[in-house]
Amino acid sequence: MKRTxxxxxxxxxLISSVSTFASxxxxxxxxxxxxxxxxxxxxxxxxxxxxxxxxxxxDGKKGEGLAQVIAEGKGQYRAVLMRGLWKTAKDAxxxxxxxxxxxxxxxxxxxxxxGWKGTLIGRKTLVxxxxxGSFDGKWTVRxxxxxxxxxxxGAIVLLPFKPGKEPDMKEWTNQKWIPLSNGAMRVGRGSNFxxxxxGSMKLHIEWRCPYEPTRRGQGRGNSGVYTxxxxxxxxxxxxxxxxxxxxxxxxxxxxxxxINASLPPLQWQTYDIExxxxxxxxxxxxxxxxxxxxxxxxxQIHKDVPMPGKTTAAAASGLxxxxxxxxxxxxxxxxxxxxxxxxx
Length: 344
Fold this sequence. Notes:
Helix content: under 10%
Number of helices: 2
Strand content: 35-45%
Distance between the termini: 104 Å
Number of domains: 2
CATH superfamily of the largest domain: Exo-inulinase, domain 1
Radius of gyration: 26 Å
CATH architecture of the largest domain: Sandwich
Order of helices and strands: HEEEHEEEEEEEEEEEEEEEEEEE
Number of strands: 22
Structural class: mainly beta
CATH class of the largest domain: Mainly Beta
């Protein structure tokens, strides 16, 4: 009888210990679900993402300010306050204050960070205050000054643009890309190349990235424009970021933009690229490497940057007199339109 009671006591203690251990064990975190599907209709972008401009006071100094509001998914937003509208890299570096917040019950976004507090009312106002500063901005839609630029006389039109009409894709080798009724061509399966080959040139190209707030980094509206299939100007949804050498406008892993001139997702953006072939002497030695200059949405972000043998994921390498223009497939629904070239 005593043995039975003792056994029951031991068993009860063991069960209690196991139960206590199980309850104390850390719970496994649920794996994050797949990113939400990309949104390609501008009418379906949330009402907070975008730019707000107005007076910006920092340490008692008044000036023009720019706030860029970035969607991060699940009602979360980040607002970046900057001096603006910048024209040079020096302007862009002056101030960068980041606030974060989540949509509240009233449908607004309370913001806070670095001693600042504010409120975002979507597509209306963004106001914020600190002990020695303030920002009072209104919703603004900025457009590239070269948007919808018409091809000049003598230009080679690679993708004609007419609103409401599917573009003619005869200048492109990959017919798996998708012509759209808005006049654009969407990335399809595999990268795309021009039928014609080009040397020194001036290129105008317009592009836009889908709205993908739950994606990050290189998974957010990724593509690229490669001159001569070798040298990439990165296409990416980099709105509001402190640019790195793999963000929009960078010459991929070769030259940082220094100024992030990106517009919000699903707004049309422009690259105006000037490419100059290498100069090779009679002895076969390169006197001057290929050079690249880039305007992003009308802002000079590169000037005569020397090119290496190739950039990452190029389809060819080494010097050439002429080769195709390449647009990269990186698995994102990026759209292109109004592409033309002037040969130099």
